[in-house]
Amino acid sequence: RVGVTYRFRVWxxxxxxxxxxxxxxxxxxxxxxxxxxxxxxVAPFWYRRTKVSQAFALACxxxxxxxxxxxxxxxxxxxxxxxAGLLLLAPELSRSITSFGQPDPWAPVAPQGSRIRRWxxxxxxxxxxxxxxxxxxxxxxxxAIFNLxxxxxxxxxxxxxxxxxxxxxxxxxxxxxxxFPFLDPDVLWRIPLFxxxx
Length: 198
Fold this sequence. Notes:
The chain is mainly α. It is about 75% helix and about 0% strand. Helix 6 (about 150-175) packs antiparallel against helix 8. The longest helix is centred in the middle third of the chain and has 33 residues, at about 115-145. It is globular, with a radius of gyration of 20 Å. The two termini are about 35 Å apart.
C-alpha cells in the first residue's frame, strides 16, 4: 500500500526471520516455519508457484537431513503432526463452520450484521476450526506419551490460539526494539506481557 516492492519486502524480512529462529534456539517448530516461509516467498523469483504442501515437505526433509535424531523429538512430532493436520483438515472444516453464519445469497439487499460476520464470526470460526483440528490431531499423541488427555483443552485453545498470536505479534517487534539502548525495556515489554498474563 505504501509502494514497497515485493522484492524489497522479502529481502528485508528474511534477515529478521533469521534473527527470530536464532533467538528461538533453532527449535524444530520455528525452523519449520522459517523454511516454509522462505520457500514460499522466494519461489516467485524463479517463476515458480507457491505450494504450502511442498514447502511443508521441504522443511521436513531439510530438518531430518541435518539432524535425523529430530524424528524422536517430541517438539518435532507435535509441530509437523499439527501443521500437517491443519493443512489437510482446517480449510474444509473452517468452510463448514463459516457456512452456518453466511447470509442468504438470494437476498436482494445486504442483511444487517454483515460487519459482525466479517469481523467477529469469520475470525472466531477460523479459530474454532484450528482449535478443533489441533485437539483432534494431538489427542492420540498426547494420550500415548502423557497417559492423559483433557477435553477442556479444546475450550482453552479457543482463547489460547488468539493470545499466542498476539504475544508473537507484539513480542518480536519488542525484541528488536530492545536492542536500542535508549529505549526502556520495562515499558516495551508491557504489551506482550499483558497478553501472556491474560
